TrEMBL record:
This is NUDIX domain-containing protein. It holds the Pfam family NUDIX. Coiled coil: none annotated. It comes from the Bacteria. Transmembrane segments: none annotated. It comes from Streptomyces platensis. Keywords: Hydrolase. Residues 3-141 form the Nudix hydrolase domain. Belongs to the Nudix hydrolase family. InterPro entries: NUDIX_hydrolase-like_dom_sf, NUDIX_hydrolase_CS, NUDIX_hydrolase_dom.
Length: 145
């Protein structure tokens, strides 16, 4: 039997610094859960720092450079029954300039929009709620981002 090891991802909640979060709707070509709204994410590449991975992924997915990156949590993501997917997700809050945001990966996403955390679209990706929970908990604890 081949050993399977967890993968590491950098998950990020992009925000405008004024309370809104950026979510992308997963398109027909997305790896899973097309039609759902989600935060950004990407795999950590060998030898890469978390911050470098986040900056690269934000640029690839949304076409902008981060103005600020803050680690806000870690999630152990087990999917399937039996488990067939295991990710260690390091979660970040990333401030970006709203006017520069664009869909950088149209094969994965078909819409982007800004939302207040208490007025989120539906349906959300199955992992998005817990990730946004880390963001909103951090915002409350720090008096906003």
């Amino acid at each position: 039997m081949t050993a399977v090891e967890p993968k590491v991802s950098c998950v990020f909640v992009c925000h405008d610094g004024a309370g809104r979060v950026l979510l992308a709707r997963r398109g027909a070509g997305a790896r899973d859960e097309p039609g759902t709204w989600d935060c950004g994410a990407g795999a950590l590449e060998f030898g890469e720092s978390f911050e470098t991975a986040v900056a690269r992924e934000v640029q690839e997915e949304y076409g902008v450079r981060p103005l600020g990156i803050e680690q806000i949590g870690v999630r152990n993501v087990l999917r399937g029954d039996p488990v067939d997917s295991h990710w260690v997700a390091v979660v970040f809050a990333v401030r970006v300039a709203p006017d520069g945001v664009t869909i950088g990966e149209p094969h994965k996403f078909d819409a982007l929009d800004w939302f207040a955390p208490d007025a989120l679209p539906e349906p959300l990706h199955s992992q998005c709620g817990e990730t946004l929970g880390l963001f909103t908990a951090g915002a409350r604890g720090h008096g906003g981002r």
